[in-house]
Amino acid sequence: MNKFFYFLLCTIFLINIYWVNGKLHKKVPGSLRFLNGRPYEGFRGHRLRIPEDIKKKLDSQYNEENMEFYYSQKLDHFNYDLRRWNQRYFYNGDLYKDGGPQFLNIGGEGPISIYDVVYPESPFVTWGSELGAMLFSIEHRFYGKSRPFSSQTVPALTYLTSKQALADIADFIREMNIKYKIKNPKWVVFGGSYSGALSLWFRQQYPDLCVGAVGSSAPVQPVVDFYKYLNVCQNSLFNNGSYTCGEEIKKGIKKLIEYSYDDTKRPYLSLLFQLQPPLETTTLNYKTLQNLYSSIIGNFMGSVQYSRVNAGPYKTGLSIPDVCGIMEDMTKDPLDKLAIVNKYIFENTYDRPYTGMDYSYLEEVNFLQDVEYDDNDLSASASRSWIWQTCNEFGYFQAGSAGNHSIWGTSIPNNLNIDLCTDVFGSQFNIDYIKNAISNSLSFYGGSAGYNATNVVMPNGDIDPWHALGTYNQTDTMIPYLIHNTAHCADMEPPSENDAPGLTYVRILILQNIKNWIGLTFNSNKSIKNFEKKNNIENKNNINDKKEISKINEIPVKFNSKLIKNTNKEDIMKKNIGMVHGLKSPKVNKDDIITSSSDITIGFIEQKLDHFNVTDIRTLQQKYFVNRKFNQNKSIAFVMIGGEGKAGEKWVTLESLPMIELAKFVGADIYQLEHRFYGDSHAPNNDLSTDNYQYLTSKQALADLAVFIKTMNNRYNYVNPQWITFGGSYSGALSAWFRELYPDLTVGAMASSGPVLAKTDFFEYLQVVQKSISTYSQSCADNIALGFELMQKMIMMQDGRDFLNKLFNFTYPWNINSTVEDYDVQSFFSNVYGNFQGAVQYSLDNTGEYVNGYGIKDVCEIMNNQTNDPLVNIVNVVNYMNTMYYDSSTPVPMSNTYKETVDFYKTASYDNGGSDAKSWLWQTCNEFGYFQSSDLGYNIFESSCNVNIYINICIDVFGPQFTRNTIDQNIIRTNNFYGGNKNYYGSNVVMAYGSVDPWHALGSYVYDKSRNLISYLIDGTAHCADLYPPRDSDLPDLKYKRELIRANLMSFLKLE
């Protein structure tokens, strides 16, 4: 009994040791050790791991109580609010000399320390000592002991913003000037990582309060998908470690994912990583595994980010050479080496034995939902504060969406980060909120490209993944420096004999600039050239309308009304994995009037292969159609621009089309010009190689149209011709863009459902799909969600895969001996949700089979069948949608491998009917993106398909040059060239979009009466609905908007 009481007393004593403010020290989830590029202790927490002998000396020399102060700070600087709170700061005046400057260390997302102002080896203190500076360090609101509220509820956190933090600094500086009677203040602000961005932004926003700023490793570019982080990690491991290291990591991650899908091998993973709890006793779901992958990959993220930074444990370990030394041991299995790295990182970071890894997403959420401060662990509350800032201002979400067949695979989708915001802070913090918040931050601060200030030095290390969000704009007083072979904030740490030459130089450079800012003699560094240059944006003046007329070849008409009957078949196989697009041909009814063949001309016009190279004499033949039945010698002409498919004669012969009805009324000729490389307008020599595809661009297509119009003007002797262009979907964008580039050749344009904004990750597509289905039937959307959730659980277990094999009739069944690849899983899911995409995009459009079915109503009837499970209903939807494409009475096999998709594109040709699909893929990879991923946080299709898969398809089909970065840069050029959806600059243009259509998310809604720029969102309609023949069943808003569009188009014409 005595032993029991002794044990009880000891237990109570130990509990009391760890009890602070009525709570126990919290257990930290493994995933928070290194989450989204931030160590648990903060971006620069390691700076406080000062050698014990130096720390003891400093502790004996300085009394913290004499240097720690609190300033009564405003709660809200931008509204009338009298509330105040105490903001902590440290001040060291021992080094000050009369007339010296004031140095301010800006606190970031963690607590400040007395060592920030007294540690003599840090450059901040060293420079302060040399220049006789006052040294201050101010703690960021909501971090450390600077707490505006007693807890971190969401209402309280609304006061945690970078703008409020900058205003804190401004008020603090003003108060210190008064307190210390500083008559000629010369404040220099310093910061690293997030606080580095604050430092640069402070100089930008409050240039009157400081003479200069140093912002080290400053991520000034807020971004939702910070895929470049893991991309830089990969490059740094290859370049600063070794090829073997990178490849072994890749093999290990691949094996990790494969084992996690294998019932027989999961126990080995549990044993190897000492997982708590073991995987085999856990209810598996995607987030559980994604969190596990993220935790393991985090080991390498940290070793790269801080590689040999001269502070804490990174001085001699935990860096690229150390983890690569483990991974290069070829006597061990790659997966086993991941576990060794995991154990090594833990033990050398926390100075205690490794006891296992918890990987629960739910535990992570619960930890971050705790609103209470923990005085025993200031990093705990800091984690919640920082996650709030990323969700509310910056993003910085480090997803594995770089493509490039990354060594990290597709294991960390952006959904994981977006959902964390939602789960921690509430349902309103979804992708729309985050996207808008980041857009606001970019608009306010300017981002990396728009950053502009004077007297700033902006060092970054090229090993550091955060350098990808830095700014490299340069003037004589705005100095960037990319330090070769250095990592995160290395310039802020004490010098070392092992420092790279560039690191030594940049410290000298910073000191020289500070001397200049405070008025000491200094020669300007105009010769600094070591910085990253901005991409050159093409000048729109390169495009002009000086296109000559060309040869035409008219051929006998080979069709009649019987030959343009409707067809139930698609021209292209359904292999576009989640890339639904295109303007479909209109429906022909038995009573419709079809223009006779005697009024139709079909011809081919000879076009230059390259309109922008005067020395290139190669040509191609481009098909066109002409209908002059309604000609009244008014020189009025309408042209339907061909898009990413074969030009159909219905667009010039079906007289119930709104375009043709208007042509009848005004006496216009009607044309259709097929797009180069599509349909019968073949690439030269039928060559669909990457080299030849360089001539398939929207700019070349628009130049084709310019030549065509000039040629037709000459051919038919038009006098003062009045052309109006028409287009739908991609060709709708072309119609709008033509008015920008060649305004003298037309009087107006009709652009239906034209996605004028190019975008790599077009996750908004599935957002609209979900919204459109939910609006029609919430139970339908809920059942889809239940079905996809069940599929994702089943695909992780062999018995579940066996069941899916039978349901979907996979082309390559996942049998017990099959290896489950993440790309294959994503291919399968994207093929499944592609059926819902098509049903929504063309719902109730007057085209093909969609006239009477295959829309939202029809798939929801299937999904709401309560006699079946939701999963069975999804299978029935797939089989139903397949009846549009196939005659077979038996279910069509479901493609479930990535290789099938790649092989389809690689073997596509004009002979086998795959050329148009491949050509459109090229245009998306080369100009537009439009990749329809599920990277939007919580949605009814779950984490089905990362944008990664589309990038890899581009690489595998067209070549390794199509990296994510290349595609992103191409899209930036496209948007800069045409203006995107916010800066479109055409005139006399009508744009129309359907509210149900997912493509309306990339439309332009700028209404400018002064230049006759008009945009309509048609309630309840889908893709290009306004272009199709009217029906009695058309929705009221469609009928109304068609009349408005007709009136707008007529206003562009000068009619006698």
UniProtKB/TrEMBL annotation:
Pfam families recorded: Peptidase_S28
Gene Ontology BP terms: proteolysis
Domain of life: Eukaryota
InterPro entries recorded: AB_hydrolase_fold, Peptidase_S28, Ser_carbopepase_S28_SKS
GO molecular function, one term: serine-type exopeptidase activity
Record family assignment: Belongs to the peptidase S28 family.
Protein name: Serine carboxypeptidase S28 family protein
Organism, as annotated: Strongyloides stercoralis (Threadworm)
